[in-house]
């Protein structure tokens, strides 16, 4: 349940995961993989009228400098294609901008496509690489909402609730000439055009796991009616000058407060390796670690998202991210005990869908 189960009305716009990690480098240098999975459980085809976007911030201001926007037109014979536009600068933030098409004409889905600038593309149905035992995140969500401490051991034994399910994957592998070698911030989004209001509407944005499923930002302190429709720069609004003690508001304030209440209930705020003096101080550290909700990745390095152990570099498709986000909430080491499913050791790295 990385970003699973915060259902939009159109499940083909439902982001289940966003990820970025190192691809196979070549003689020109490192290559980086950026991807998004949508349509969880059954992997239904994409909405041909929607945008599926990979957004990259290269200068550290949490505003996208490059957007790779995928659309999935259907030909007169019913064949589905994929088209990717590259938008840079001010156009990267503008859904009315057209950008430069980097895909060849009638680029097929379900195949690796060689694009302009040395970019590789894959868009197709894949096995969902995410693994988790649903009672664990359900218990975590309840604990955050009620200020209680979850009893995960009472829920064991765990089994993979996502085994043999499918998603629709949109994956790019970019050369270092496009990303640079310095850290970048990454997130993914989906959007549709609202003809009644003549505007594009963002349906979801995703980066780190569970931020929209664990926290009820609409009815909590943040009072943000639709967090999925926002941008990363909103995430730090309301952070005070003295975050460990001063009153806070907004998304940041709610994350601090909800997590502080959980570790207060469990008496875990002073646990090693962090050992904070108060529950609120631990909550502030957790909020600063998790927000803004982007993935930070240094091209050419090994991706691993385990921020409780002070490792936040990209997010792969085999690590136990469901356990790693729980550690952040309870300030304890935690493991589901589950193992990743099959993957490929070559692009697009995600395994084919399970047999129906």
Characterization of the model:
This protein has 356 residues and is of the alpha+beta class. The protein is 17% helix and 24% strand. The protein is built from six helices and 14 strands. The chain has helices spanning 135-146, 176-179, 211-214, 250-266, 279-290, 321-330; strands at residues 15-22, 31-38, 51-57, 66-71, 83-88, 100-101, 112-114, 120-127, 166-175, 184-194, 199-206, 295-297, 304-306, 311-313. The strands form three sheets. Strands 3, 4, 5, 6, 10, 11 and 12 form a seven-stranded antiparallel beta sheet that branches. It is globular.
Order of SSEs: EEEEEEEEHEHEEHHHEEEH
Helix content: 10-25%
Class by SSE composition: alpha+beta
**Overall number of strands:** 14
Number of helices: 6
Low-confidence stretches: none
Task: Determine the mean pLDDT.
Answer: 96
Q: What would the principal axes of the Cα set say about the shape?
A: globular
Indicate the proportion of strand residues. 15-25%
Short description:
By secondary structure, the chain is α+β, with helices and mostly antiparallel strands.
